[in-house]
Specification:
110 residues, 0% strand, elongated
């Protein structure tokens, strides 16, 4: 069977299956799945299935985590959001120091 056709069929089946399959997780399983490391592993697996390349998948997960935890995180000292906009939207009351933000981000990851 042609690999392109096989990949197309498998992606189609995954899309159909993900819509109609329901899983009932226990509270401990839900808490485990919500952990950032587990979500990164699941996302890495999705990237790997899409690209079939370990190096590209690692690069994609690195860029994703960089954006999620630093550039697009309003609590990060390295965020790209305008500070005034964050304060106007009520997302950030006051600017926090880089040291305090860094400590908070590290404790969340650990």
């Amino acid at each position: 069977m042609d690999p392109v056709l096989l990949n197309s069929i498998s992606i189609f089946l995954v899309q159909i299956g993900s819509r109609f399959l329901t899983f009932k997780f226990t509270e401990a399983q839900q808490k485990t799945i919500q952990h950032p490391w587990v979500q990164s592993i699941i996302l890495f697996a999705m990237f790997y299935l899409g690209t079939r390349s370990l190096l590209i998948s690692l690069c994609l997960i690195l860029v994703y985590n960089l954006c999620l935890y630093f550039l697009l995180n309003e609590h990060s000292a390295y965020n790209i959001y305008n500070r005034r906009w964050l304060q106007n939207e009520g997302l950030q009351k006051e600017f926090t120091s880089k040291t305090k933000t860094y400590t908070q981000n590290i404790t969340k990851l650990i």
